[in-house]
Structures are given as C-alpha cells and as structure tokens.
Amino acid sequence: FCTLCLQECLKPKKPVCGVCRSTLSPGSRALDLEKQIEMTETTCNGCNKKMYLSKMRSHAASCSKYQNYIMEGVKAVTKEPLHNTRSFPNRFTFPCPYCSEKNFDQEGLVEHCKTLHSMDAKQVVCPICASMPWGDPNYRSANFMEHLQRRHRFSYDTFVVCDYDADEDDMMAQVLMRSLRDK
C-alpha cells in the first residue's frame, strides 16, 4: 500500500486491514498471500521484463521505461476535457435502504446500518451495488447486513482508479497489482 492509504487504515483506535477492513491482529502475517506474491509471475508494462510480483516494486522504481509508461497514463488522463457531458451515476454517496436517510459514503452506510438497522430483516436493494454497472437495481438481498459486511467493508476507489466498465474480479486484480507497485 502507499503510505497515505496505509496511514488512513492505521488511524482508527483499532487499526484495520487495508483491503477488508477487519481489525488487525498485532504480529500476524498473511503468509499465504506472501507465498502467492512470491510465486506469481508478471511482466513490467515498461520494458516487458518477466519477474515475480515480489520483485515488481523495486524494479518499477528503477525502470525508466516503466516510469515513462506511468507518465503517459497520467498525461492521457489529464488531457480529458473537464466539461464532459456524459451522465455518470453517483457512486460516492448512498441512501439508507431502510430509513432513506441520505448522503452516506460507503463506510458511513455500513456503520449506519450496523448501528441502527442490525436487527431489521426486511429485504432491500443494496444502493452501492445498484449504482455499479454490474449491479442489479432490482435485486433484494436476503440478508443485507451480511452482504454489507462481506462486500462493502472497503471501497475499490480507495485503492485504484476505478474502471466501472471492468468486472468486479478485474477490479480486485487491479487493486492487488497497484498495491504491490506503490512505494
């Protein structure tokens, strides 16, 4: 993780995982994830050199072709006109599906529902999922509270610039790859 994101996760009274927001246990390491990172091969987007993910961060820091690749991406994004007239759905604030209180960010909605609606068994549409291209605005979750805990403990755009045309598995893969590349 980049320093800024990691500091955000460590701010609460109880530090949380940067991915799933579970409370961190001091001294525990994700050995299975470390092993996966050591054994997964990738290719540098700059020089096309093959290496293990565990070596990618140090390589990216010294690869001038990778640095150029990143700068080209930054230039491409900043050239997009600011007055784009396309209509984008609101994916930043959500109403509570139980009481219709509005303007919660994703974490705020999770906390609000845990605090005020944890015993409400009414089947509701998840407003977060409904705002996504892959979400079904008519699907009513049988257990909304469990859905919130499992699917919305963190926001993708905290870790990666979201491509909402990509599917959810692709976005998770991007989150993992970018967290490994950041210094």
Automatic annotation (TrEMBL):
Pathway(s) = Protein modification; protein ubiquitination
The alphabetized UniProt keywords are: Ligase, Transferase, Ubl conjugation pathway
InterPro entries assigned: Di19_Zn-bd, RNF_E3_ubiq-protein_ligase, ZF_C2HC_RNF, Znf_RING/FYVE/PHD
- Superkingdom assignment: Eukaryota
Task: Please give the Pfam families that the UniProt record associates with this protein.
Answer: zf-Di19, zf_C2HC_14
Please tell me whether the keyword Ligase is annotated for this protein: yes
Q: What's the EC number here?
A: 2.3.2.27
Kindly list the GO molecular function terms attached to this UniProt entry: ligase activity; ubiquitin protein ligase activity
Q: Name one GO biological process term.
A: protein polyubiquitination
Name the reaction it catalyses: S-ubiquitinyl-[E2 ubiquitin-conjugating enzyme]-L-cysteine + [acceptor protein]-L-lysine = [E2 ubiquitin-conjugating enzyme]-L-cysteine + N(6)-ubiquitinyl-[acceptor protein]-L-lysine
Name of this protein: RING-type E3 ubiquitin transferase
Write down the species.
Steatornis caripensis
